[in-house]
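Researcher: Going back to the complex we discussed earlier. I've cleaned up the inputs and rechecked each line, so this should be the final set. Can you rerun the prediction on the complete assembly and write out the structure?
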Amino acid sequence: MDWARVAAGLERGQRFVMGFLSPDFASRWTDIRQGLIESLTMTLTSTVVGVLISVPIGIGAARNLAPRAVYYLCRGIIAVSRALQEIIIAIFLVAMFGFGPFAGFLTLSFATIGFIAKLLADDIEEIEEAQAEAIRATGASWGQLVNYAIQPQVMPRLIGLSLYRLDINFRESAVIGIVGAGGIGATLNTAIDRYEYDSAGAILLIIIGIVMVAEYGSSYLRKFLQ
Amino acid sequence: MTEITHYSQVWAHRTPRKRLFMWLGWLALVALFVWCWQVMTENTIWAFVADAPRQAADIGGRMMPPRLSYLPELMVPLWDTINIATLGTLGGVIMAVPVAFMAARNTTPSQHILRPIALFIIVASRSINSLIWALLLVAIIGPGILAGIVAIALRSIGFVGKLLYEAIEETDARQIEAVQATGASPAQVVSYGIVPQVMPAFWGISVFRWDINIRESTILGLVGAGGIGLKLQASLNVLAWPQVTMILILILGTVVLSEWVSARVRHAII
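Model: Rerun complete. Updated structure for the full complex:
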């Protein structure tokens, strides 16, 4: 522990608090706007793509629907996606796909798969078996079973989870920019590196504001849909 | 007697109006997606994307085999990482308890002043990732373990505070009333009526957060806040891919172990 360093930093901390209290939205506005647009578009596209991919994986990872081999394969995909940190995936994807929001989009999609597919699979395993039995008794094929017995039961929850993930993805998009995957995180990192604490404070306030709006909006939307 | 052979109305799950709205909703979502995709990929260099599988094979080839001789060097940073997570959780929980009591509707001292402040603290802490906290704190108190501990603690306040205040609001009002009926002071009501009810939830939340914090503290080093992430950053910077593999394996092992421990502990409590 270097207490002299801490003491020296306190003055800087005070400047940061001052910057936070008097945020400067104007002077870096073009950069902030660019970062925000990247973050928001990245969030939406990655959530949509992630959910689309995780639906088949989630169905495959439900023990009451899938054969054993498919079940283990899908659970394996989910485990890999959940075990790795977003940041670590982002580092590799940036190395592969180059800097910019495309790598961020892929990272968030990958992380979404593990989250949505796992919860969807758990949900499918807990459906009311009586309804599935009734549909099966009419001689329905596997596709019809999924469409008429499973889908109506899990759809409200799937929509709720997707909205929740949208919220998480926005928060994560603010972070993966630090390793070069585009978005508001890159702008924030630059602002802190240049000791422009007033701009950094402005960015943090914008992030907090959007997250609050997203949280209230998604809980309202979920109530409306149910 | 004539049999009805023609139904003027076919039964449907939803009215046509509702179906139209749903259809428009999905159309709007698709349109929004396409538009966002266009905006996002404006500056993407597709040559890099096409090149990605070759790059992946190249990196993958360099990563194998992991450098086992690097393992002893990683033990001290790993210990640091676990310390960051544990002390950070401890600090976060200590700060979260008063915030939770202020935020819960049934225990807050003032509905209109303190409760909104407590809720704002919770939201602010939750919406800023620990990596961003670490980024700020490294600038303020310098690189090292302390910045990591404080970052983890600040981030934990929101999580623990939110779950704990929900648990406090869900306590059984009858028990509290019974304690009040004995003429207990507000402090006694809290310690005899509320605390025993939220204690299991409290321990469960704390252990759960510790598990998450182990995960998060492994990467805090990327911005200079100590722990094993520091080694990861160093190895990435010199493109020492076999060392990176070794670190990733170690991180994965630690995460799995901590998840197992936390699952066992929570199972024992609940």
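Model: Worth noting: The longest helix of chain B spans residues 186-220.
Researcher: Good, that matches what I expected from the previous run.
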